[in-house]
Amino acid sequence: SDAERVQALDIERAENLLSNAEPLVTHMYTADPSAHVFKGKIYIYPSHDVENEHPTDDEGSHFAMEDYHVFSIEKVGSKVIDHGIALHVKDIAWAEKQMWAPDAAEKGGKYYLYFPARDYDGIFRIGVAVSDEPSGPFIAEPNAIKGTYSIDPAVFCDDDGKHYLYYGGIWGGQLQQWKGNEYLGKDNYPQNGQAAIAPRMAALSNNMLELAEDPKEILITDEQGEPIKVEDTERRFFEGPWVHKYEGTYYLSYSTGDTHKIVYATSNTPYGPFKYKGVVLNPVLGWTTHHSIVEFQGQWYLFYHDCSLSGGLTHLRSMKMSPLQHNADGSITPIEPYQE
Ligand code: FUB
């Protein structure tokens, strides 16, 4: 399959490349790091990659994760603390398997962990779990968040304290099986020439446990205001949406999946439309790329993952971080993960 072919190329590349950043932890595999500043520290909410017997396929069966650990960093460069298991799939009534990329938010002194998993019908949904501490442990709500589907939740808190949930991913993330929030039960990809499938978003309710509105599909356009098209695989949305705000502008960044980049688009509202701007992170070792962007003590950082620690195994990833630069014109300087 394509997945195996790309993985094999990456193992070859890995031998000749020097990483520009080291894994943040090496005692376990971690991926999809969502970072936030809570209580004056950086807290990281990654996936916990595990070795498993599942085949490498376009459904993502090889991403067979079962739990989450939360990590914290007091100062950049200081030891990364592993706070242990924060939530396990066996403690979630509605979820069967595949605990994929999570995110977290804080409101009123409580912490909310948002996570995707497959339910007992094999459908990816997004759940929420609550704790009094950013490190957990988290107690899951009995049901997935009503009206949610697909994967890769990311919660953005605006300056007015309002929270928005962004989510979605195609292929194994199943977003192509939904149209207008209706479940089609099968793949339904648009044709070349049509607008690419885009991430969904909705405001969260005051209690942080529900959607306050029906999810909307975000419009991502090119410089001319035309929707990014299906065949534009260097720029179209694949998975892993993330929103941050810099000097009043909303930045939506995401993975382009099979072209292996993190790119970004900007808007003056959290609802978009977002206009494509450029690359945040060039391809890393491994098939997937997934990130978050956060400001800590006056410096912006990119959190991302690659497969250098596992020698290129696409389902065994390690989270890393790198300073990120916004320029005077609002552009982001693309980050190079390696030197030749
Ligand atoms: O970690 C499993 C999946 O791989 C994530 O949900 C995607 O974003 C990709 O990183």
Structure keywords:
mainly beta; five-stranded antiparallel β-sheet; five-stranded mixed β-sheet; 1 helix; binds beta-L-arabinofuranose; plasmid; glycosidase; polysaccharide degradation; Glycoside hydrolase family 43 protein; Glyco_hydro_beta-prop_sf
Describe the structure.
The protein is mainly beta and 340 residues long. It is built from 1 helix and 25 strands. The strands form 7 sheets. Strands 6, 7, 8, 9 and 10 form a 5-stranded antiparallel β-sheet that branches. Strand 18 and strand 19 form a beta hairpin. The longest helix is centred in the first third of the chain and has 13 residues. The two termini are 27 Å apart. The mean pLDDT is 95. Beta-L-arabinofuranose binds next to strand 2 and strand 18. The site of beta-L-arabinofuranose has 14 residues, from strand 2 and strand 18.
Task: Describe the structure concisely.
The protein is mostly beta strands and 340 residues long. 4% of the residues lie in helices and 40% in strands. It has 1 helix and 25 strands.
The secondary-structure class comes to mainly beta
* Poorly predicted ranges: none
Number of helices: 1
Question: Which hetero ligands occur in this complex?
Answer: beta-L-arabinofuranose
Summarize the main sheet.
5 strands, antiparallel
Helix content: under 10%
* Number of distinct beta strands: 25
Taking all Cα atoms into account, the compactness measure Rg is 18 Å
Molecular shape? globular
- Tell me the fraction of residues in β-strands, as a range: 35-45%
What's the average pLDDT? 95
Distance between the termini: 27 Å
| Topology order in helix (H) and strand (E) letters | HEEEEEEEEEEEEEEEEEEEEEEEEE
Keywords: Carbohydrate metabolism, Glycosidase, Hydrolase, Plasmid, Polysaccharide degradation, Xylan degradation
Pfam family, one: Glyco_hydro_43
InterPro entries: Glyco_hydro_43, Glyco_hydro_beta-prop_sf, Glycosyl_Hydrlase_43_Enz
Protein name: Glycoside hydrolase family 43 protein
